[in-house]
């Protein structure tokens, strides 16, 4: 699908670090919308091999803050045309998304989210337990008596898609427009002169460039250390697992913050499941039995009939967590160095809108209006964009 380049050019108009969905989407829109084709995407491993190829592909815009809802909703809008743009089946499948509430306090947050969502034109509703049962007949509303379901936030546009096809689509689109994608090429240093970026050191030599976009998710602190820049990002593993394929029985996507579990059923029939972050900072993608056991037991609370279903695979990614569970995007104190980070456990759905807004920011040197709420200086200003109540499962 991609052109093979035997050598790097001595310099490029822009260099993007990381061939995950975000880096590739930025390259695609830089070439397509801004006419910037003299661009290299440098990837230390293989294309889509980071969190992009490890995530559980939930797409939704039912966030809590107006900044978040607007941003993710624009992404949802972009998702609709993507398969046509790429001429590639992304298996985008609208399923409806339930965030279950097991207490009155949780139900209050669901109503809050529903109100913010509706105010901004996003289809979300607070619903009662009877509605949940009608839509998911196989669910045990009592959750084995541990945490009875009292209602939910129902978000009709909630969807899933095939994650690696998204990376391939953006990569192929960028490649066809002249962007060079170099895999097995690690950035090991960033050269700065008089406060401006002048190039990057790589495992294949120095490359000159006045513009660098850092889109490396769980490796963000390592890249920022090269520049002496600091963010409050901390890195935790996030695990997931998938069952053997079974007959289709689950249409919507289900998330329970209280039970720390979420699940959807893929087109192949597998149950794609996840839970909260591992509770410690660690820069390793190991899997643990503890995770598989506790996730399985909570799945069985909701769906006791799954007792005989086997787990096929388990894996982890590295989540670059920000303190307010919102991303950190845009220009930085180093001229020519741009950041697309803080994507923690919630960045797959934002791939298209990140590409759009970061390509604009790189091309113009000014933050795109949609990312104003996510700038790095919000921490110094004590103006956080608090998304903890809506970012993912209960972290
Ligand atoms: P990545 O895909 O991680 O790409 C970064 C790339 O940078 C990697 O390929 C890496 O090899 C490369 N890199 C790192 N350092 C260097 C270097 N020095 N030089 C060159 N290359 C380098 N989000 C959702 O919206 N919905 C979900 O359901 C969801 N589920 C998730 C489940 C799991 C288990 C995990 C781990 C994450 C989940 N996420 C989800 C979050 C989502 O996966 C990420 O936020 C998103 O994929 C980040 O994309 P990215 O392109 O920024 O990073
Ligand atoms: O962003 O919706 C999400 C999500 C669910 C699980 C991990 N991330």
Protein described:
The chain has 395 residues and is α/β, with parallel strands linked by helices. It has 2 domains: 14-54 and 164-233 and 323-391, 3-Layer(bba) Sandwich (FAD/NAD(P)-binding domain); 92-159 and 234-320, 2-Layer Sandwich (D-Amino Acid Oxidase, Chain A, domain 2), CATH 3.30.9. The protein is built from 8 helices and 19 strands. The protein has helices at 21-34, 66-86, 104-119, 129-135, 163-176, 220-225, 289-302, 351-364; strands at 14-17, 39-42, 93-94, 97-101, 124-128, 151-155, 159-160, 180-182, 187-193, 196-202, 205-208, 212-214, 234-243, 253-256, 261-265, 271-277, 311-321, 328-331, 337-341. Strands 5-6-4-14-15-16-13-17 form an 8-stranded mixed β-sheet. Strands 8-2-1-12-19-18 form a 6-stranded mixed β-sheet. A hairpin with a 4-residue loop joins strand 14 and strand 15 (261-265). Helix 1 packs parallel to helix 5 (163-176) and helix 1 (21-34) crosses helix 8 (351-364). The longest helix is centred in the first third of the chain and has 21 residues, at 66-86. The mean pLDDT is 97. The chain binds flavin-adenine dinucleotide (FAD) and pyrrole-2-carboxylate. Flavin-adenine dinucleotide binds at residues 17-23, 42-45, 49-52, 54-58, 186-187, 215-217, 219, 223, 238, 240, 274, 317, 319, 343, 345-349.
């Amino acid at each position: 699908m991609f052109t093979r380049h035997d050598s790097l050019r001595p310099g490029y108009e822009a260099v993007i670090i990381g061939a995950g969905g975000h880096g590739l989407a930025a390259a695609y829109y830089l070439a397509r919308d801004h006419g910037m084709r003299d661009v290299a995407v440098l990837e230390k491993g293989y294309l889509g091999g980071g969190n992009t190829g490890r995530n559980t592909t939930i797409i939704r815009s039912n966030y809590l803050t107006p900044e978040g809802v607007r941003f993710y909703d624009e992404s949802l809008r972009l998702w609709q045309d993507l398969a046509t743009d790429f001429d590639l089946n992304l298996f985008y499948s609208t399923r409806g998304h339930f965030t279950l509430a097991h207490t009155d306090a949780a139900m209050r947050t669901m109503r809050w989210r529903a109100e913010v969502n509706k105010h901004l034109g996003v289809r979300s509703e607070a619903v009662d337990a009877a509605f949940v049962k009608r839509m998911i007949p196989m669910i045990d509303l009592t959750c084995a008596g541990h945490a009875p379901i009292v209602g939910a936030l129902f978000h009709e546009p909630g969807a899933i898609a095939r994650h690696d096809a998204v990376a391939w689509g953006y990569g192929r689109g960028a490649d066809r427009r002249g962007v060079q994608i170099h895999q097995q090429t690690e950035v090991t240093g960033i050269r700065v002169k008089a406060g401006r970026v002048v190039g990057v050191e790589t495992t294949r030599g120095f490359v000159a460039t006045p513009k660098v976009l850092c889109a490396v998710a769980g490796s963000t602190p390592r890249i920022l250390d090269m520049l002496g820049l600091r963010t409050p990002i901390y890195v935790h593993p996030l695990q997931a697992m998938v069952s053997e394929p079974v007959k289709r029985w689950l249409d919507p996507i289900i998330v329970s913050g209280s039970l720390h579990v979420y699940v959807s059923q893929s087109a192949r029939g597998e149950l794609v499941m996840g839970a909260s972050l591992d509770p410690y900072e660690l820069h390793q993608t190991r899997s643990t039995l503890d995770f598989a056991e506790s996730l399985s037991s909570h799945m069985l609370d909701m769906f006791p009939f799954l007792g005989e279903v086997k787990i096929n695979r388990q894996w982890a990614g590295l989540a670059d967590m920000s303190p307010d569970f919102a991303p950190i995007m845009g220009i930085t104190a180093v001229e020519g160095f741009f950041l697309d980070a803080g994507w923690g456990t919630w960045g797959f759905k934002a791939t298209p809108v990140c590409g759009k807004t970061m390509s604009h920011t790189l091309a113009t040197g000014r933050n795109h209006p949609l990312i104003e709420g996510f700038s790095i200086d919000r921490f110094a200003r004590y103006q956080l964009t608090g998304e903890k109540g809506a970012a993912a499962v209960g972290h």
